[in-house]
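Reopening this one. Same input as before:
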Amino acid sequence: MLTYPAIDPVAIAIGPLKIHWYGLMYLVAFATAWALAVYRVRKPGSGWTEAQVSDLLFYCAMGIILGGRVGYVLFYNFPQFLQDPLWLFRVWEGGMAFHGGLLGVLIAVALFGHRYKKNFFAVGDFVAPFVPIGLMFGRIGNFIGGELWGRVADPAAVPWAMVFPRGGDLPRHPSQLYQAALEGFLLFVILWFYSSRPRPQRAVGAAFLFGYGVFRTIAEFFREPDAHIGFDMFGWLSRGQLLSIPMIIIGAVLLVHAYRSADPKGQQV
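Same output, byte for byte:
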């Protein structure tokens, strides 16, 4: 069994001003996504400019923050919202959801595409490879904050299990790191190399939906369900898995359709 590294969630404190590691992870995520996107657009024939990348990052950041908060309220704690509607705006109390953030990003992509006269799916394909690297840093932030811990584990079978300060006295899976590795790093590597060659339109975005849905579903088997929700179905299906199933289905359908709609050279027709 490993000892949980008790890292102060506050990275910098200047008087009443406190900057948390989780917030810094957001900054690192956006900065890394911007750098990777700029690397891609500097290649000849990309059809993008660095100014457009910066604007797209702003649109997506707003979509992640607003969508993530609204998604958490609607998907994970709607009864509390009904009792206290102003809780939606008290973001400092915590509560963000990936699936809400994804919906927010889709809206942001649509708005960006409308402004710059770019196809929705083309923008989605461009954005998709950069999302997982942001998710990786976000999950690392969850780990540093000692939140969203995993299920109880047997140290004899899982020697890297650890006791989280707010998770009780029993050793648990560090599921935040599992998610950082699967939904983050591994999915990023897959999408980065997959998108490095021309693909049919919608294929890269579809691969992201399918890959994230699969990896999130796997990771949820090691993550402790929210205490106020528990399991949604069958005594083992969590809310995260329930929300990921449509992603797997939609991603698979879009991926098949993308290739069926392409010409023999793999380009969209």
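So the earlier flakiness isn't reproducible anymore. For the record, The mean pLDDT is 90.
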